[in-house]
Amino acid sequence: MGEEEQDEEEQSFEELGLDTRLIRALSKKSIEKPTPIQRVAIPLILEGKDVVARAKTGSGKTLAYLLPLLQKFFADSPSKKNLAPAAFILVPTRELCQQVYSEVTSLIESCRVQLKVVQLRSMMSASDLKTSLAGLPDIVVSTPACVQTCLTNGMLQAKALQESLSVLVLDEADLLLSYGYEDDIKALSAHVPKRCQCLLMSATSSDDVEKLKKLILHNPYILTLPEVG
Ligand code: ADP
Ligand code: MG
C-alpha cells in the first residue's frame, strides 16, 4: 500500500498526459510536480469530463483546469471558425480575474500558441467590452455579471455562444453565489450547450456549490481532497 502511495506522489505532469510545451512552460516557473488535486483532475479534464474539484485554498486548482483547457485548444485556435469564445472562466472578483488572466496569458506566451484571451471587467465601458469581444477571443476571463451585460447588450450573440462554447469554468464557485451572481449564472446557463464541458472549482462544499452543480454540470466527477471518510 505504501509503495502505491509513493508512486502516486512521484507522478509527473507527463504521466498525466500533458503536452510538452505546457510542461516546459511550467518548468520555467519552477513547477515540476503536480499537486494532488492536479494529479486527479487533469486526466479527467483532458478526457472531456465534467468535474467538481474541491480542495483547500492554495492547492493549485487554477492550473488544474487551465492546463487541460489550454491543451484542448492547442491543435487549432477555435476562434478561426467560431463567432463567439470557446471558453469562459467565471470568477467572483476583479482581483481573481486579473490573476487568472495573467496566469493564462503567461502560459500561452510561453507555449507560443496562437490563442487569444481577454478579461472583461466590471468597470469597462460598453465600447471597451465590445472591442474586447470583437477581436474574437478564444478564452474569456470574467465575472458572471460582465458576461450577462454582454449578452443583454447583444455584444455576445446567444446563438453564436451556443455553437462555440466548449468549456465553462466556475472558479471559486463557493464565492460566486455569495457575491450575488446567481441570476447572472442562471441566465448564462440557458445558453450553455449540452456538449459543453463544465468545471467547478471550490475550496469548500456548501449548499451554494450544490446549487451551482445542479444548475450547470452534467453527471460530474466529484473530486474532494483530502478525501473524507
Ligand atoms: P487554489 O486556486 O487552489 O487556491 P492556486 O491555483 O491559486 O490555488 O495555486 C496556489 C499557488 O500554488 C500558486 O502560486 C501557484 O502558482 C502554485 N502552484 C500551483 N501548482 C503548483 C505545483 N504543481 N507545484 C508548485 N506550485 C504550484
Ligand atoms: Mg483558486
Automatic annotation (TrEMBL):
<protein>
    <recommendedName>
        <fullName>RNA helicase</fullName>
    </recommendedName>
</protein>
<feature type="short sequence motif" description="Q motif">
    <location>
        <begin position="11"/>
        <end position="39"/>
    </location>
</feature>
<comment type="similarity">
    <text>Belongs to the DEAD box helicase family. DDX56/DBP9 subfamily.</text>
</comment>
<feature type="domain" description="DEAD-box RNA helicase Q">
    <location>
        <begin position="11"/>
        <end position="39"/>
    </location>
</feature>
<feature type="domain" description="Helicase ATP-binding">
    <location>
        <begin position="42"/>
        <end position="223"/>
    </location>
</feature>
